[in-house]
């Protein structure tokens, strides 16, 4: 193939220009901002890593990180457990009309999070759908689920569970459908029951899908800005604040641009570390087996 | 493998229950949207709520702005991704692995990590409250995934396809356009619908980049509307239906592409 040496770079150039200017450069600028004290206008003061050091003693920030980790339980861990059970149940099914079910189960992924927030606010209001359903089974309550500090974060978490479980289940199901049937027949001949079969055959075969869904859902949990902004604005108090909400709040409401940038960098590092960590665990197990 | 009738029935039960769980908030919002507004006593579906929300929240202009942003973001991101994916997928060159990782990096960077300097720097250039401030960062985000996706598609194509074209004497761009793109149309459709969905649903970028509300997109319009009519659940729900309807319609029409994109795109990540 005769080609000029610069040809590949010419193809990359337009994409790289936009990507570099509006993604890479801003990330670098955020890192730079995080080393300054700046109210968003006028002169800025170089403070080194002081913004980061301050975060260590910043109650709001520590709460936000704790909340994000708690949300991972609802966004990632629970969907994985439920998704595994459901997918393992469905694996053997030649279900007619699977297409329709798949569309319905995917619907939460498509709807804008702001609309999701509106729907769930309606569910959680004192005279909302949840309390009406509870009333049907004899539990009369007028709790505003998003307004109680002890409940609000779990209530937001359940929205995350609702968002992610369908996706996780279908990802796992796609993986399980690729497992050859002979593998199952062999273990059945060995006298394995459905449960030992699940641990011996199914679980190891979908390791890749488990890693993928964990990475996807953990990132979703850490980026849950729209939902928090629209449902609780981080409240009551700091009950539902998360790092991404802190970034917005500090940068554009409180005008603490340096601190906001430091939170943004911590958030990004957190996303990377968890990502690499989960992927590594997945790979290690693959090697040892 | 033989599946017993009991097992089959169980599958239907599991799927139906789970679908109901997925639909539950959707049903809630539809029922609320068609319920009575504050101070209205009559029962029955109030279709007028949607008209009222549309007018009071100026959702016509907001939807139009969303559409314009998407019409700018998606085609530009798509063309740039195809060009870059073509280079990564079919050519060998120095630094290709490193450069590819640079693009992969963008798929993990949260919008929160770029939004602060984007706002302050673009404001200094007088670009906030323009379509560019909202579209360009989203083009950059979409390019990261788009390049990654198109590279995988072009790599999966038989290499003699490119060679045959080279022997015929067709040049690079013509090869790409005439030989490589046509068989990739389904996967291009997939990445197109995904980019459209992300752009349509994006919230943080228009929230920050249009402080003067001149480019208030549909999701943002809903957020503002919610602030104004806090007490009127019916109107807010009706507004939510307006904002969600276009993307749900596209999803139902192009479900095959959406679902394959979300399952495969995720698996390739």
Automatic annotation (TrEMBL), chain A:
It comes from the Bacteria. This is Raffinose/stachyose/melibiose transport system permease protein. The keyword Transmembrane applies. GO terms for biological process: transmembrane transport. It holds the Pfam family BPD_transp_1. It is found in: Cell membrane. It is a multi-pass membrane protein. Gene3D superfamilies: MetI-like. The chain crosses the membrane at residues 9-28, 68-88, 100-120, 151-174, 195-222, 257-278. It comes from Tessaracoccus oleiagri. Signal peptide: none annotated. One of its GO terms (cellular component) is plasma membrane. Keywords: Cell membrane, Membrane, Transmembrane, Transmembrane helix, Transport. Belongs to the binding-protein-dependent transport system permease family. InterPro entries: ABC_transporter_permease, MetI-like, MetI-like_sf. Residues 65-278 form the ABC transmembrane type-1 domain.
Automatic annotation (TrEMBL), chain B:
It is found in: Cell membrane. The chain crosses the membrane at residues 12-35, 62-86, 98-119, 131-150, 179-200, 234-254. It comes from the Bacteria. SUPFAM superfamilies: MetI-like. Its main location: membrane. One of its GO terms (biological process) is transmembrane transport. Residues 63-254 form the ABC transmembrane type-1 domain. It is a multi-pass membrane protein. CDD domains: TM_PBP2. Keywords: Cell membrane, Membrane, Transmembrane, Transmembrane helix, Transport. GO terms for cellular component: plasma membrane. Belongs to the binding-protein-dependent transport system permease family. This is Raffinose/stachyose/melibiose transport system permease protein.
